Amino acid sequence: MTHSSSPSIGHEARWWRPLENGRVLCELCPRECRPAPGQRAYCLVRRNEGGRLVTDAWNAGLGFAADPIEKKPLYHVRPGSRVLSFGTAGCNLGCVHCQNASMSQSKAALARMEHATPGMLLRAAKSQNCAGLAFTYNEPVIFGEFVMACAEAARATGLYNVMVSNGYVALPAAREIYQQIDAVNVDLKGFREDAHRKLTRGRLAPVLDFLRWLRHETTVWLELTTLLIPGHNDGAEELGELTRWVADELGPDTPLHLTAFHPDHRLLDVPRTPAETLLRARQIALAAGLRYVYLGNLPLAEGNDTLCPACGVVCVVRDGWGESSVRLVDGCCPGCGAGVPGFWATGARAVAGTRDARR
Ligand code: SF4
Questions:
Q1: Which residue, by CA, sits nearest to atom 8 of ligand 1?
Q2: How far apart are CA 32 and CA 206, in angstroms?
Q3: CATH of domain 60-304
């Protein structure tokens, strides 16, 4: 893809209303910023320009790359396919352990955004043999207007759309942004309100509300990731509560990715997650009733493949990112014929598993 170095700026945003004294209220996420004229909001890409909320993340992006879908991670979505991935500057959370802080928490990243229209992205996706678009790296809802434009264009040409999200979004906006989204991986960064605030500068409760909404009121395919940070969110009691909540509220077929932390950004004094912690957490999740519990960021013998929960036969073999071998027959286990929920279709546009199949 060819980019110019001058992104479009000042595109009028959605999901806001005017307040007194020229301030505006952004209604896109639970942070509810109220920037004064001339001020940027918390997520950097939205700002008050003369009493209007505008976005600088329109026809613009950062970090364009063709990735294996497994890298998002999304394990029950078109295994072996590639997605054209990008994000923007800014984020609506301020995670102290962010692995993309040079994009998400740096004003300098605004100047690095490149011009990219939906048409340019689709041409790049096709030329790089991508089956879908991935809105990722930072929180995609902060550029929700552009996500909607790209996702609509992608669907019209037979590409699928996925998000990698922190789940920090107001539901009225999510209802619009997720209309053309096929699958999402949401980071569930812990299960303690106070620790969540310290780690992310955001509240946990809205994330749980969003997850319930996504699961019960949409057909978007949902997977979760929890990064296990030693001493912060890896206690057995907390993990037990988190995984039981997922099983009860979102269903036991919701894939959960438990991934290893490495020191980054402002959390440099915390050690890497040991393999034993991941293995123990997986046992807790399985005991809570979750059927698909994967391990990531460490080379381990377990937690890579998709096993049939009914008979234990391997249904999808994963040998590194993008090297998946699917043994399913019409979405069913090749051993016993039990349905394995997911987004397996190989046609022009993937079709999500039915709601019943996920239960
Ligand atoms: S999307 Fe950005 S501007 Fe809007 S409330 Fe959230 S952080 Fe603030």
A1: 33
A2: 12
A3: 3.20.20.70
